[in-house]
Give the backbone structure.
Amino acid sequence: MLTIENLSVGYSGIRALRGVSLTVRQGEIFALIGPNGAGKSTLLNAVSGMVPAAEGSVRLEDETITGRPAHRIARSGLIQVPEGRRVIAPLNVRENLELGRQAAGQRGSDSSDLDKVHSLFPILAERRDQLAGSLSGGQQQMLAIGRALMGRPRILLLDEPSLGLAPVIIREVFNALVKLNAQGLTILLVEQNAKMALETAHRAAVIEQGRVVHSGDANALMNDPVVADHYFGRAAA
Amino acid sequence: MLMQQLLNGIVVGSVYGVFALGFTLIFGVNHIMNMAHGTIFMWGAFAGLFVVLTFDAPFLAAVLAGAIGGGLLAVVLDFFAFRPLRKRNAPEFSSIVSSIGASFILLSLAQQVTATRVLRFPFETFPVVILNFMGLRIQLLQLVIVGIVVVMVFGLLFYLYRTSYGRQIRSVAFSESTSKLLGINPMAVNFQVFFISGALAGIAGVLIGIVFNSVHFMMGEPLLLRAFVVIILGGLGSIPGALIAGLLIGIVQTLSVAYLSAGMADAIVFSLLFLVLLFRPTGLLGGATSVARVTRS
């Protein structure tokens, strides 16, 4: 589905990503975990076209999308839910969702998309006239996901969806992701909450200092003593 | 007499409001102080005059020509003066300098083309019809101008708040990077914003050119200064603020000319600005409602 080959990104001399290769398969949830500053967000942003790649390529099915402007990558069906939600605060909930349709482009969208989002997150129907900026963090995260779904993604990228949310809300958001995945949506998830991510994902990779250091089956990674040591020591505490 | 002057002030002020709307729109969406807005206004007036003189076009065609001429010029300006800066993420100050440079080029060009003459719309462009209403002498032209302004303002509000295009504009105004992730093409949005802004300026140019019966290469510069007052009074990025402050400035200016002296008008307008800045630093309506709320992210 999504093939990342030898992707490198440099910010003014600093190499944030060094030759990362990954494949996300159709219909799976793939998690990227790793410490702060490891390059997880950089990877998502390079794939989304928000930062230029210095080397390497990204393919969405058979199309090479490297080097395309970000809005065209979104329109080709690779839609990112950015870190910190980034809802359009001065617009209301309904308008934010309508904006999401832009990404559907030629694949088209209709009223059924809005119904689907509303049935996944009923709160968004309830709050439709409220300004997005006045929603709680959890509601904003749901809005950001709902907005991305309005664009009929072929693959959904999420950057730290659990960031700053209460555990019960995180559960709700991840349940929604599992439900979407069960309906066939491919998901690439970046998380610092490694436990949550590995429990949800089918496969995963660990990124450190801009490199993939482990990858494989999510269960296997969870039971890997080195990974467990590094990530659950802290996550459990 | 007072009512008569108030009426004149409202007519001029509504045109100031439209001029300032275009200025504030670009500021709200792109965070650019477009110092060439006055020259776009002036070239819009020339575009209107051109179709009248060349094709004997009627009044509304002149207004349309002003809109198209101003709109296209603003798009070209964006392409040459601002887009290269945006690409490099240059600081906002460079766009001010760049627009000042562009305005000088456009000014000198106009000076050359007109040989520094003051041009006039032919008298028959708009027939002088005077209506008497409760002791006021109202020119048909004044009514038509206020009508055009009202249509433009409601058209703009409809476009911004009720259409998908307007939603995209407001989204880009809030965050260009997030908008891109949603599949919004910021270049298409900028194109619309600059075209609308330039069209508003161009229409204002034709209207002012006809009202004062004079079109010349410097006509936009005093207006640009007043537009600063308008948008600071109204609150940067605020559409209702720009309109209300535009009307206010028009009225204050007309009354100053009528009752004090013409030379004092600008001094009074700018004193008003100082007073408002002292007591309401965010403007009369600032911070309350702005479309294009000035948010950086």
Observations:
- Chain A has a mean pLDDT of 91.
- Chain A has ten helices and ten strands.
- The interface with chain B takes residues 48-50, 69-72, 74-75, 79-80, 82, 86, 88-91, 95, 98-105, 147-148, 151 of chain A (CB under 8 Å).
